[in-house]
Amino acid sequence: MTYTIAQAEQELQAKCEKLNLRWYPRYHLAARAGWINDPNGLIWFDGWYHAFYQHHPYSTQWGPMHWGHARSKDLLHWEHLPVALAPEGPEDKDGCFSGSAVIDGDTLALIYTGHKFRGDVSDDENLYQVQCLATSRDGVHFTRQGMVIDTPADLHHFRDPKVWREGDNWYMVVGARVGDTGQIRLYRSADLRQWQDEGILDEAEAGMGFMWECPDLFSLNGKRVLMFSPQGIAAQGFENRNLFQSGYLVGDWQPGEPFVRAGEFVEMDHGHDFYAPQSFLTPDGRRIVIGWLNMWESPMPEQQDGWCGMLSLPRELTLNENNHLQMRPAKEVEALRQAWLPWPASSLKNQQTLMANKAEAMEVVLHWDCTSSDAEQYGLSLGEGLRVYVDTQMQRLVLERRYPQYGLCGTRSVPLVPGAPLALRLFIDSSSIEVFVNDGEACLSSRIYPDADRRQLSLFAWHGTAILSEAGAWQLE
Ligand code: FRU
């Protein structure tokens, strides 16, 4: 089969009329129809934020990758634009894989991975991944410029270029797999077309993964943050529970010099569903990250509804003095706030109380006084399927989802800070929850699948008393 943008558009027009919207996000970006995975090419260009994404318009499963495209003034209200890239080949005949965008003069340039097999597609030995360029003046229609970096000898997995400007040069990080070792390769260019191999920027030590996907290198607070999505790190205790991780290393780097780590790999989000994050700068200099709010090989019940996958809220990144990356909802999110539903400071004892009849698009604020609370479990529930609660015996904040009908049950959690209160901002959308803990300290993001009539929001405290020092909720637009 050959693919074109026109054909993808036709398919999407037909498909988007047949969606079941029960779980379709109210304030997050999802595809018009079909499948979506990684965010790509996030950038501010010509007065708009642009978000591209890995997209399969022809089904709700992953397939030959296209680049979907949307733009927004505020990172929350998105306008869908025509598909930007289709795997028209020959350099990308089996998929336009992940990549990034930069502005070169008056041109918006997309740098992405061309994915192609020579022969049997089930054999990795036949796989070639090359880096490609496409350019646009209007930010909507793109001209393919073809391959700019060929697959290095002996490599097959070589993808997800992230490009940025530094001094007089463009730099690119690319994820790679060498045997069973994940790597990040570095390249340099003066013109986005001719690229100089600058070697290996960093690579996995034993146990740190066979492939490092979606690398991103940026500066924060005088340091460099190397963010990437490693495949093949084993779960250990409460850590690295998802099939694949996304996280970061903090270090130092200057052009021409090696990357020197200043710490260990840290997971970025502790929920069930956050992967392949990509960062970009706002015109006022904030570093924002958006991730894919799903996990590979996890059940995705919205597939029966004609669409699949969504992107996370935009989150501002900062780096604190302990080199810890903090994520907070981008300030734009506050503009979604409508009616405030106040809730009194109160204590709960062996009870569950209803806070709202239907939580669909909502930001909930909860401050728990953990030192004065002795309940064994206390927190918030949404219908019967979701609880976000403090487990006093474990001394952890737990996100528990229970949708056995969809094969999705289990918990994710983060440790409590001993002796400290717990401030939570919880963002509920039709089929997602994002929990921001203690103003940037931790984040848990998971997909949830409540029935439309089972979205009651309740507070509870079992086996003891819990003290709520501040609470309320915003209806979101
Ligand atoms: C990450 C990823 C990338 C790749 C893309 C393919 O989720 O596997 O490495 O470019 O998805 O859709």
TrEMBL record:
Give an example GO cellular component term for this record: cytoplasm
Q: Which InterPro entries match?
A: ConA-like_dom_sf, GH32_Enzymes, Glyco_hydro_32, Glyco_hydro_32_C, Glyco_hydro_32_N, Glyco_hydro_beta-prop_sf, Suc6P_hydrolase
**Keywords for the protein's UniProt record, in alphabetical order:** Carbohydrate metabolism, Cytoplasm, Glycosidase, Hydrolase
Entry superkingdom: Bacteria
Q: Where is the Glycosyl hydrolase family 32 C-terminal domain?
A: 348-474
- UniProt pathway annotation: Glycan biosynthesis; sucrose metabolism
Q: List each copy of the Glycosyl hydrolase family 32 N-terminal domain by range.
A: 28-329
Q: Give the reaction(s) catalysed.
A: Hydrolysis of terminal non-reducing beta-D-fructofuranoside residues in beta-D-fructofuranosides
GO BP, one annotated term? sucrose metabolic process
* Enzyme Commission numbers on file: 3.2.1.26
Does Transport appear among the keywords?
A: no
Question: GO MF annotations for this entry?
Answer: beta-fructofuranosidase activity
Q: Name where it mostly resides.
A: cytoplasm
Q: Where in the cell is it found?
A: Cytoplasm
Q: What class of enzyme is it?
A: hydrolase
- What does the record give as the function of this protein? Enables the bacterium to metabolize sucrose as a sole carbon source.
Q: Which family does it belong to?
A: Belongs to the glycosyl hydrolase 32 family.
Q: What name does UniProt use for this protein?
A: Sucrose-6-phosphate hydrolase
Q: Which organism is it from?
A: Duffyella gerundensis
UniProt lineage: Bacteria, Pseudomonadati, Pseudomonadota, Gammaproteobacteria, Enterobacterales
Gene behind this protein: cscA
